Structures are given as structure tokens and as C-alpha cells.
From TrEMBL:
<keyword id="KW-0560">Oxidoreductase</keyword>
<dbReference type="InterPro" id="IPR017972">
    <property type="entry name" value="Cyt_P450_CS"/>
</dbReference>
<protein>
    <submittedName>
        <fullName>Putative cytochrome P450 127A1</fullName>
        <ecNumber>1.14.14.-</ecNumber>
    </submittedName>
</protein>
<keyword id="KW-0503">Monooxygenase</keyword>
<dbReference type="Pfam" id="PF00067">
    <property type="entry name" value="p450"/>
</dbReference>
<dbReference type="GO" id="GO:0020037">
    <property type="term" value="F:heme binding"/>
</dbReference>
<keyword id="KW-0408">Iron</keyword>
<dbReference type="GO" id="GO:0016705">
    <property type="term" value="F:oxidoreductase activity, acting on paired donors, with incorporation or reduction of molecular oxygen"/>
</dbReference>
<keyword id="KW-0479">Metal-binding</keyword>
<dbReference type="GO" id="GO:0004497">
    <property type="term" value="F:monooxygenase activity"/>
</dbReference>
<dbReference type="InterPro" id="IPR002397">
    <property type="entry name" value="Cyt_P450_B"/>
</dbReference>
<comment type="similarity">
    <text>Belongs to the cytochrome P450 family.</text>
</comment>
<dbReference type="InterPro" id="IPR001128">
    <property type="entry name" value="Cyt_P450"/>
</dbReference>
<dbReference type="GO" id="GO:0005506">
    <property type="term" value="F:iron ion binding"/>
</dbReference>
<dbReference type="InterPro" id="IPR036396">
    <property type="entry name" value="Cyt_P450_sf"/>
</dbReference>
<keyword id="KW-0349">Heme</keyword>
């Protein structure tokens, strides 16, 4: 059915009748978003556990960890067809498996998972280590960097290229789908012209490697997908290309964003940096706390599949939901003193990767890249501070990202200088 079957005024009337707060909550368009995206989203916590926003097409907003869990797990009741598009515009891209519902979702997800299993990720770890080591050495030599462009986007791009069976020399083409000269995405690219060209170039790259792997199989994503079946028939080229785009689209900006948020925090806090980067156990806790505090995907959309009573509120088929993932991660019932950044927080049941059947398929990969970055970087560059942040702002597509993060290196580790 059309997502517009339920009018926002009808939903608003139901909200008022149920005693649910109704406000114009529109973080994406809030002028404060560019400076403080997560704070703008977290403001929703003050409104209530559930409220209705009249912004855009109208949507119910959910702020609590427990409710986030309930909705994320009930894929029979809440559709993912609009997830990753945010609340403002209806989707113009369809991602497999992110926008699929069961049973199709289950089939595609099962097909993808061997590529992202712990064993598959282990095989990519040496690539990640070598990339971080080389990049950190270059930065140490130079004495400064734009961490976002020079490090955070480059590491997941290089790991992705290795996984795709493509040479690292193509990293700039991959990164161009995220980084436009000077700034990220829409702000300096009217009509998205440069972005479209970058995406077309990457598509050509994928077509090239697919044709090559048909002739000569290797141990990589295209070779694996060429061997897979869906509903008893081989995947079409179109499906394979779409899955390659999904793997790129979901892995690059999200991981880079988390890396940048974490390194900004570490650059600001030498005591934390020294205590939390020293042992592998500490690094694991640091990465989890970074994911909790700075969830790169802070909002998730769902659509109600059939009329349902949700804790006394009558939701109707087609109602839109906005799950404030960032607020679930800052829910004091789930995380004592949620405002504190505590790498030793135990347990840390953050939902930065989502929950339930759509939980991030790349969680192991992202976790490995973050861990390896912290370990290898700090062996080489223990001390650094923030540079001039006057150009720093935040943008949102699926992930919330910094446009730039200037870092100045204080001194490389003696053995690496
Ligand atoms: C720190 C980095 C990352 C974060 C914070 C993140 C976050 C998320 C979240 C919140 C979802 C759930 C969407 C929903 O419930 O609708 C998701 C889904 C997904 N992620 Fe990630 N992600 C990250 C890295 C990655 C990486 C490295 C990959 C590797 C390819 C990846 C692949 C996917 C895929 C394929 C889905 C769709 C899963 C499904 O619908 O079944 N992600 N991610």
C-alpha cells in the first residue's frame, strides 16, 4: 500500500486522543543539527517515551531502549521499507537486505552473512592492520591530517577494496562516493552531479571485476556472489551489483563516522587516550562505548504493517515510526549515568548496530576495523590534539558524519619516529 494512505492529521488526532505529546520535532532541519547532531536528536528524550511529530510527513517518535528493542524485533509488525531513508523523503533507493521484510529479507540476509562472519572478518584483519600502519606512518611524517578524509574514510575503503578483489589504488574512486572536495555530500554539489558521477564510476568498477571473476574466480565478494542462488536460480548481475553497492554503502560512511567521533573524543582527553588504548581488553570497551555514545546511524525509520495497539496507542497500517537509536543508547534505565563516557561500562548493551533480524550485518567487520585502528594508530601516534575546527560541521545521509576533523600530531612514538 501507499505510505500516504494514513494522513498525518489522522495520526495526529489519534495521538492527541491518546494523550501523547504532539510537537514539531525535526532534528534534520534544526539549525543546531550541524553543530550538535546527537544533542539535537537527544532533545527528543525530554518530550516523552513516545510522541508524535508533525514535521515532514508526520511520524511517531520512540525514545526508550526497551521500546526500541520491542519494535526492532517485531519485523512481522513493522516494515523496514523506509529504513535508511530518514523521515523526510520517501525512499528513492531500495537496498537489499536493509529495505526488505521477511520472508525475502531472511533469504537475502542468509546469503550475505558468510561474507561478514567472524571467520571472514578475521581474514580481512591483516589488510586493516597494514592499511592503518601505512596511513598512520604517513600522518606521523606529515605532522597533521584531516582525520576524516585522510584516515577514517580510507581504512574502510581499503578493506572493502581487498574484500572486493580490487586494487587499493582505487581507494580515491571509492571515497569520492562520500567525500567531495572540501566538504561531504550535498552542501557543495548542487543537484548531486558530482556524487552521481562518482557512483557511476564505482558501478563501472564493479562491472569490471564481476566480468573478470566470471573468467577467473578468486577469493572475494564477486566470486562468492557469482556462486550463490536465490529462490533456486543464480543471482542476476543486477542483483550482484546491487549487493556490492549495499556492502559499500553500509560500510564506509558508518565506520568512518564512528572512527572520527571516537578520535575527536580521544584528542580532547589525553587521560582517556592513555588509559583506554593501552591493552586489547581496554580497546574493546573503548570501541563499545564509542558506538554507544556516537551512533553513526542515530535514527531508524519503520512503517506499521497492520493496525496495532502499541501500549495503548492505536497505530494504523502505514503510520511512520522514527526510532531514536541515539536516545535508546542514552536511556538511563539501560545505562547508568548515560552521559558519562565510560570505556569500562559493563554490561554495555548499546544498540548502535540495531537489534533483531535487521541488526547490522557488518558489526564484526566494523568492530574489527575500529579496534585495529585504535591499536595500530596509538602504537605509532600516542599524542595528538585537535586542529582548527572552524570548518567542522555535520551532515547526514544515512550516517551522521563530520565534514572534516583536523588533527595535529604532537610526537610520534619513539620507535616509529
Ligand atoms: C560503526 C559502523 C556501523 C554502524 C554504526 C552500523 C549501523 C547499522 C544499523 C543501526 C543497522 C540497522 C538498520 C535497521 O535496523 O534498519 C545496520 C544495518 C546494516 N549494516 Fe551496518 N553499521 C556499521 C557498519 C557496517 C559495515 C562495516 C557493514 C558491512 C558491509 C554493514 C552492513 C550492514 C548491512 C548489510 C545492514 C542491513 C542489515 C539488514 O537489514 O538485515 N554495516 N547497520
Amino acid at each position: 500500500m501507499s505510505t500516504d494512505t494514513v494522513s498525518s492529521t489522522d495520526a495526529e488526532a489519534r495521538a492527541r486522543a491518546a494523550g501523547v505529546p504532539v510537537i514539531d520535532f525535526d532534528p534534520e532541519c534544526d539549525p543546531r543539527f550541524k553543530d550538535d547532531p546527537l544533542g539535537t536528536i537527544l532533545a527528543g528524550q525530554q518530550v516523552g517515551d513516545i510522541f508524535y511529530s508533525t514535521a515532514a510527513r508526520g511520524f511517531w517518535v520512540i525514545t526508550r531502549h526497551e521500546l526500541f528493542r520491542e519494535i526492532s524485533q517485531a519485523t512481522d509488525r513493522y516494515s523496514n521499507r523506509e529504513t535508511f531513508t530518514f523521515y523526510r523523503d520517501p525512499p528513492d533507493v531500495f537496498q537489499m537486505p536493509a529495505n526488505l521484510d521477511p520472508p525475502d529479507h531472511t533469504k537475502v540476509r542468509r546469503l550475505l552473512m558468510p561474507l561478514l562472519s567472524p571467520a571472514a572478518v578475521k581474514r580481512l584483519e591483516s589488510r586493516a592492520r597494514a592499511s592503518v600502519a601505512r596511513i598512520a606512518d604517513e600522518v606521523a611524517e606529515r605532522g597533521s591530517c584531516d582525520f576524516m578524509a585522510d584516515v577514517a574514510l580510507r581504512i574502510p575503503a581499503e578493506v572493502f577494496l581487498e574484500h572486493m578483489g580490487l586494487p587499493l589504488s582505487r581507494a580515491d574512486e571509492i571515497i569520492a562516493t562520500r567525500l567531495l572536495p572540501g566538504k561531504l555530500n550535498a552542501s557543495n554539489d548542487p543537484g548531486g552531479v558530482q556524487l552521481k558521477a562518482a557512483v557511476a564510476a564505482v558501478r563501472a568498477m564493479f562491472e569490471e571485476v564481476l566480468a573478470e571473476r566470471r573468467r577467473q574466480p578468486a577469493d572475494d565478494i564477486p566470486t562468492y556472489l557469482l556462486s550463490q542462488e536465490l529462490d533456486g536460480r543464480p543471482l542476476t548481475d543486477q542483483e550482484i551489483l546491487q549487493l556490492c553497492h549495499t556492502l559499500l554503502g553500509t560500510s564506509l560512511g558508518t565506520t568512518a563516522s564512528t572512527m572520527a567521533f571516537l578520535f575527536k573524543r580521544l584528542a580532547e582527553d589525553p587521560a582517556l587516550r592513555h588509559s583506554a588504548t593501552s591493552t586489547p581488553e581496554m580497546v574493546g570497551g573503548l570501541v563499545d562505548e564509542a558506538l554507544r555514545n556516537f551512533p553513526a546511524i542515530p535514527l531508524l525509520a519503520r512503517t506499521v504493517r497492520a493496525d496495532v495497539d502499541f501500549h495503548g496507542i492505536p497505530w494504523k497500517e502505514g503510520d511512520r515510526l522514527l526510532l531514536l537509536l541515539a536516545a535508546a543508547n542514552a536511556d538511563q534505565d539501560a545505562f547508568p549515568s548515560p552521559e558519562q563516557f565510560d570505556p569500562q561500562r559493563t554490561p554495555n548493551r548499546h544498540v548502535a548496530f540495531g537489534l533483531g533480524p535487521h541488526r547490522c550485518a557488518g558489526a564484526h567487520l566494523a568492530g574489527m576495523e575500529l579496534r585495529v585502528l585504535v591499536e595500530e594508530w596509538h602504537r605509532r601516534i600516542p599524542d595528538y590534539h585537535l586542529g582548527d575546527l572552524s570548518d567542522l560541521t555535520h551532515e547526514v545521509s544515512v550516517a551522521v558524519r563530520m565534514t572534516t576533523l583536523p588533527l595535529v600530531i604532537d610526537s610520534p612514538a619513539p620507535s616509529f619516529s
